[in-house]
Write a structure and sequence with these properties.
Layout: E1 3-9, H1 21-30, E2 36-39, E3 45-50, H2 54-63, E4 67-69, E5 79-80, H3 87-90, H4 92-102, E6 113-116, E7 130-135, E8 138-143, E9 156-162, H5 164-181, H6 188-195, H7 197-205
Parallel strand pairs: 5-6, 6-7
Antiparallel strand pairs: 1-3, 1-4, 2-3, 7-8, 8-9
Helix pairs in contact: 4-5, 5-7
């Protein structure tokens, strides 16, 4: 019997990635006894289940406030901080807009994008492929974090003082440049090392 996989998140809110008990109850009750649910490092739940029930399940999950995303070689839903400074100060609205703009885009490897509402960086943006840090009224963009390695490395600063209206286009340009020039299964950090960060900066700044 054919099975497929999709990702589920509760969306963004003050306090972090929080699934409500009733959401988990509905999820468990409708996916079927044979389904598999996996917790990922992307703050998503992966659900693997029979294809014929997929549309019905996705509709019911959306009705209770859960967000559905594709799995595989795509940009993952935005990994955020807990917005401890409040929705406005930490840029919750910007995070929501950025997530809608970048989630689920096909890429040579799964791409992790982090967002932090201040320089404390509690969502660990410097360990993500692309990290966005809100710095008062502007944003810094970091690239190339690599936590899964015998030689882990922090992301490096690509652009600073990015205005709010330019943030989403800049991140989209980064993703599209990787789409066009990255090799299949090439990690984003290795892609940057291959083309150089100077060339990447020049490509998206044009």
């Amino acid at each position: 019997m054919q099975v497929m996989k999709f990702a589920v998140t509760p969306g963004f809110q003050i306090g972090g990635t929080i699934f409500k008990p009733e959401q988990l109850a509905v999820l468990g009750s409708i996916v079927g006894a044979d389904a598999k649910i996996e917790l990922t490092t992307f703050k998503q739940l992966y659900v693997e289940m029979q294809v014929e029930k997929m549309d019905e399940v996705k509709e019911k999950l959306s009705d209770i406030g859960l967000e559905i995303y594709p799995t595989g070689f795509v940009t993952k839903s935005l990994i955020t901080c807990n917005f401890c400074r409040g929705a406005e100060d930490a840029g919750l609205e910007m995070a929501e807009a950025l997530n809608k703009a970048i989630s689920g885009i096909e890429t040579p490897v799964p791409l992790k994008i982090g967002y932090a509402g201040c320089a404390l960086g509690t969502s660990e943006p410097l360990l993500k492929d692309i990290g966005v840090v809100k710095m008062r009224d502007t944003f810094d963009i970091y690239v190339g974090g690599e936590p899964k390695s015998l030689k882990p490395s922090f992301a490096v600063l690509l652009m600073s003082d990015v205005q709010a209206d330019r943030l989403i286009p800049m991140v989209q340009k980064l993703i599209h440049h990787f789409q066009q020039h990255g090799k299949m299964k090439e990690k984003f950090s290795k892609f940057i090392n291959r083309i150089t960060i100077e060339a990447l900066h020049e490509a998206i700044a044009e």
